[in-house]
Amino acid sequence: MPVKMRSGDGWQDILIVNVSESGLLLKAEITPALGDCVEIRHRSLSIRGEVVRTAHRRFAIHAFEPIDLDTLLAKAAIRVRSDGRFLAPVEGDPWHWRRNR
Fold first, then answer.
1. What positions does the domain PilZ occupy (predicted)?
2. Residues 6 or more apart in contact with residue 43 via CB below 8 angstroms
3. Which residues does 89 contact at the CB level (< 8 Å), separation at least 6?
4. What are the pLDDT digits (tens) for 6-37?
């Protein structure tokens, strides 16, 4: 899911790779350093946390407050099946292949 990240004085476009109630796994061209505090924004949702792991172009943050997964998924227009797997929000988007898994 594409989002914006503020680290220091600037914003950059990054991707959420994985999410839990306590943190995020993210992918970026330029990753912040361990211990940096960052803010992730998607539409009106803001998640703040500390960088706890980095590897190549991926990094993980531990959120300062629990992440409301329902709100995050609703803002991303991603539906969740009864078995917990994700479904694509619209036909023909990059997530279409998940429907047949």
1. 2-71
2. 75
3. 76, 77, 78, 79, 95
4. 987 789 999 999 999 999 999 999 899 999 99
| Structure tokens that stand for 58 in this block | 């991926």
CA atoms within 13 A of residue 79's CA, in its CB half-sphere: 10
Distance, in Å, from the CA atom of 49 to the CA atom of 24, rounded to the nearest integer, reads: 9
Domains defined for the chain, CATH in brackets: 2-100 (2.40.10)
Predicted TM-score (pTM) of the model is 0.72
Going by C-beta distance under 8 Å and a sequence separation of 6 or more, which residues neighbour residue 5? 11, 12, 13, 14, 26, 28, 32, 38, 39, 40, 41
